[in-house]
Design a protein that fits this description.
Distance between the termini: 34 Å
Number of strands: 2
Helix content: 55-70%
Strand order of the largest sheet: 1-2
Strand content: under 5%
Order of helices and strands: HHHHHEEHHHHHHHH
Number of helices: 13
């Protein structure tokens, strides 16, 4: 079946921007009944008792709001961006699978599973690893079984084939980015706003690479995330939860690998990387000092990183806006590095 999207890159970009607007509208339309339903079902966030005291007011805010992003993107992608572009079933499939996994985790958390922490961490990681490896294999497998990808673009140098190493690298990147966005989802608008910026950056990169389907997917994600921000604006009416954060991070990584410019993912997603690293460093340093001194010490006042700045006295809005600024600059740098490749 031929694609219903234009084959001309400029016309495809124009239609994709229109679809971003459509995704925004669709998310607004379905968002209100979803928020109402979540409230009626008492799908309320439980704030960590060891978190910042300013977050106690968030107790009772509906979670699992990421379902509105997933629903909007899946619907629009299936209608407009899969005919003649079957490769788009991969990012939308990963988005849907990760969203379902996140919803199960959110649901168990609400029911008090795993000691009030949701799904057991090992089980969640097992499923996420399975999804990531399947996606990585499809990315690497030759036509017609997969996309036949095995190369990396090195900034300022060129393209190199890395063979079978592509599979474990892609799998690890998908897992890492899903968890990184999950760590970032701790303040109103923080994860959704920085993710929207990252998807815009990769839409531009995909346009430069001639990956028209990825352009459309990334802009559709951007529109849906902006629609979610309507309800997530401080003070949030709904929180995305793992339903949204795992799906957003995993699908962003898949889109990055489809462009071939996946080495720029830590640049474009610098905020996500910093958030994840802060957790890894905090836990590692605490365990190391406890073993050495008998008492654990901390590098940050609190992890993830956004809580550290809250503890320094920054307001929630200051943290989110400044992280948005950093995300914008990271996106600009990532696009610039992609444009100068030989």
């Amino acid at each position: 079946m031929d694609s219903i999207m234009p084959v001309d890159p400029n016309q495809n970009m124009a239609v994709s921007l229109a679809l971003a607007g459509l995704a925004f509208v669709v998310t607004l339309i379905i968002g209100r009944p979803i928020v109402t339903f979540l409230r009626m079902r008492k799908a309320a966030k439980q704030v960590r008792i060891d978190g910042p005291e300013t977050h106690f007011v968030k107790t009772g805010t509906p979670t699992m709001g990421g379902v509105m992003v997933a629903a909007s993107v899946v619907l629009i992608t299936l209608v407009f961006n899969t005919a003649g572009r079957l490769s788009m079933l991969l990012p939308v499939g990963v988005l849907l699978a990760a969203a379902i996994l996140g919803a199960m985790d959110d649901r168990q958390s609400l029911l008090g599973g795993a000691r009030q922490g949701g799904m057991a961490a090992r089980l969640k990681m097992l499923w996420l690893t399975l999804f990531a490896l399947v996606a990585a294999i499809i990315l690497h497998a030759p036509f017609p079984y997969g996309l036949g990808l095995s190369s990396v673009y090195l900034p300022f140098i060129g393209r190199y084939d890395i063979g079978i190493l592509y599979v474990p690298i892609a799998g690890l990147a998908i897992i890492a980015m899903a968890n990184a966005v999950n760590f970032t989802d701790g303040l109103d608008t923080l994860a959704a706003g920085t993710a929207a910026i990252a998807f815009v950056a990769y839409a531009i990169i995909a346009y430069r690479q001639g990956q028209l389907g990825v352009v459309t997917f990334c802009l559709t994600m951007t529109g849906a995330l902006m629609g979610f921000l309507w309800f997530n604006a401080h003070p949030a009416q709904v929180i995305m939860g793992d339903t949204g954060s795992l799906a957003i991070g995993a699908s962003l990584a898949v889109a990055a690998f489809m462009t071939g410019q996946w080495l720029l993912l830590p640049v474009v997603g610098a905020v996500f990387v910093a958030e994840a690293l802060s957790v890894v460093l905090q836990v590692g340093y605490f365990k190391l000092t406890k073993r050495r001194y008998g008492e654990g010490r901390r590098l940050f006042k609190m992890a993830p990183l956004h809580h550290h700045f809250e503890m320094l006295g920054w307001s929630e809005t200051q943290v989110t806006m400044r992280f948005w600024m950093l995300a914008m600059m990271a996106g600009i740098i990532g696009v610039a590095m992609a444009l100068v490749q030989f």
